Amino acid sequence: MIAFTKMHGIGNDFVMLDGIERAFPDASLPPLARAMSDRRYGIGSDGIILVDKDDAGLSMRMWNPDGSESEMCGNGVRCFAKFVHDRHYATGNFIPVETGAGSLVLELLEDGKVRVDMGKARLTRGEIGMIGPPDQMVVDQPFLMPDGSTLPGTAVSMGNPHLVLFVDNAASVPLEQWGPALERNEAFPNRVNVHFAMVERPTSIVQRTWERGAGATLACGTGACAVGVAAFLTGRGARETSIRLPGGVLDIRYAEDGTVYMTGPAEYSFEGEWPAG
Predict the structure, then answer these.
(1) What is the pLDDT of residues 187-208, one digit of tens each?
(2) Among 238, 243, 248, 245, which Cα is nearest to 262's?
(3) Which of 6, 49, 103, 245 has its CA 20 to 30 A from that of 214?
(4) Catalytic pick among 73, 95, 233, 252
(5) Where are the beta strands (DSSP E) in 21-144?
(6) Domains of the chain, CATH where assigned
């Protein structure tokens, strides 16, 4: 049997696997992600997270429900911080971790929330993984919607690619139709996370998300970072912004040096065992 822990960050939920206690061959993880994440026949989640450790320190890897591996997950990395702290794999309030998006530092706050130094936002086509001139930024460029309309879009990478589209009414967006179409927009060869953002005021933004490889989710941490950055770049938002997602609120700070900080909760749901083999 495979022991697991179910956790979530404002409704973005994950199956946590302890790779320190038990080795998981790489080939086993995509099918495990598909089976465990299934909300009818499995545990149900927005992906699985492998907690691991080697001579260089702690590491985190994440697989989407479709079995594809993601470079990073903002809500997942906060769950990772709480998991390794509570299992005494890390000591102190500052926890360094290696991810597919590079090295991050996680800070456990006194109120139980986790602040993450997400590193610097990456803004050029080459850094994001888009076609076109590699040094060019994509800020408030028109993107064609499935109904023939266009919306201003800004592309940002937080180690994984994001497309932020500003709308007047986030609730009216047909997410289940527009999300999968834009996820596979030809400008993003490796697909993209799609976010529809409605600015209430410069310090408050409403976000709805279609995640690459997962579909509609209650929250997306790296996406909230991208929304905060995109809002500032386009003159819609402040450097410090509260992002309201269906699952809850994340606080985003886009520092003057380009570093993005994300603060939010991480919670346990339950523990259990999964049949092995």
Answers:
(1) 999 999 999 999 999 999 999 9
(2) 243
(3) 103
(4) 73
(5) 48-54, 57-63, 69-70, 94-99, 102-108, 114-120, 141-144
(6) 2-119+265-274 (3.10.310.10), 122-257 (3.10.310.10)
